[in-house]
Every structure is written in structure tokens, then in C-alpha cells.
Write a structure and sequence with these properties.
Elements lengths: L1 H17 L9 H12 L9 H18 L3 H17 L1 H15 L2 H11 L2 H39 L37
Length: 193
């Protein structure tokens, strides 16, 4: 009888560990392990300098694309940081879901064991530098590839003639000079001649 009770309790415990912990359907054990990884800053930390770095990267693109002044860029960067920090709980939940979608319990256990080890922490500290270096190399190579592709294109494609100077528009109410050529736009497609 006691063995039966122990077996039932053990089975109930095993079933409880496999039960979904949230609406995503992931087992509680996977969610717990994935949360440990996210809290440890894997794949990226969601606090402090990391958030500021993300904001800085976003602002760099916006300065070029949207023509922001340095002061506007600083204000936008502060706003991005504030908004990212406010969204941190939702971002963490999405990251946890991503881990539980991609890894099983055994893989998550190995990741947690590695990340929380001294060696894992050292690797984690160095990865942003490796990523930055790789990004710089890729950007440089992409720029070189673009310059070469443009040169290759120009070598085989004839250079089009320079466009003729455009006739300046007449001011409102002004009449064209008699005898001067008048630019006539081509007929619209499908229009009668």
C-alpha cells in the first residue's frame, strides 16, 4: 500500500513538472530554466548599458534616415531607453517563449549550467566584442562589395548621356516669350494623338 502511494505521488509530481506553465504550452520546467537564462542576460541583458546600446544603434539609423539633429537624437535615445525599460517584462516573456520553443529541458539545463559557470560568464562578457568585430568586418566587406559591383556595372553598361537642362517654369500669370520653343509633354499612354 505504501509503495502504491509513493508511486502515485511520484507520478503526480512528474506530471506536474510536464504541465504547461503558461498559455504558450511550455512545461513549467522549461519556462523556469528559460527564465534563468533570460535573467542571466542571455542572449542579451535587458538592463543598463545594454539597453542604452540598443537605443544608440536605433538612433544612428534614425539620424541618417530622418535627419535628426544631435540634440533630437539624444532626446530620442533617452525615449527609446525609457520605452525599452518599460517593455522589459513583455520582452522577457517573449525571450522565454523563444527559448522554450527552440530548446528542450535537457538543452536548457546545459545552457543554464554553462551560463552560470565562471567560464560561461567570461564567454558572455566577450561575445558582444566578438559580435561588434564581426559586424564591422561584415559592414566593411559589404561596402567593398558594393563599390566593386557598381564598378563592374559601369564597366559593361554604357554611361547614359547627361540630362538636358530643364526649362525653368514660368512665374504664375506670365506668358511665354513669342518665338521661344515651348516644351510639350509627351501624350499620356492610351491618349488619342
Amino acid at each position: 500500500m505504501i509503495r502504491t502511494v509513493i508511486a502515485v505521488v511520484a507520478a503526480a509530481g512528474a506530471l506536474a513538472a510536464c504541465q504547461p506553465a503558461d498559455p504558450s504550452g511550455a512545461p513549467a520546467s522549461e519556462v523556469r530554466l528559460a527564465k534563468k537564462l533570460v535573467d542571466a542576460g542571455v542572449p542579451i541583458p535587458l538592463e543598463g548599458e545594454a539597453v542604452q546600446q540598443l537605443a544608440y544603434q536605433q538612433v544612428q539609423g534614425m539620424m541618417f534616415q530622418d535627419g535628426l539633429s544631435p540634440e533630437q537624437a539624444r532626446q530620442v535615445m533617452m525615449g527609446i531607453s525609457k520605452n525599452l525599460e518599460a517593455a522589459s517584462p513583455e520582452i522577457k516573456e517573449e525571450m522565454i517563449k523563444s527559448f522554450t520553443d527552440q530548446f528542450n529541458v535537457k538543452e536548457l539545463e546545459l545552457l543554464v549550467k554553462f551560463v552560470t559557470s565562471k567560464e560561461g560568464q567570461a564567454v558572455q562578457e566577450k561575445m558582444p566584442l566578438v559580435g561588434q568585430g564581426a559586424s564591422e568586418v561584415l559592414q566593411k566587406r559589404a561596402q567593398e562589395a558594393g563599390v566593386k559591383a557598381l564598378a563592374d556595372l559601369r564597366a559593361v553598361w554604357p554611361t547614359p548621356p547627361a540630362p538636358a537642362p530643364a526649362q525653368p517654369a514660368l512665374p504664375p500669370g506670365a506668358a511665354p516669350v513669342p518665338g521661344a520653343p515651348v516644351a510639350v509633354p509627351p501624350p499620356a499612354p492610351g491618349a488619342p494623338n
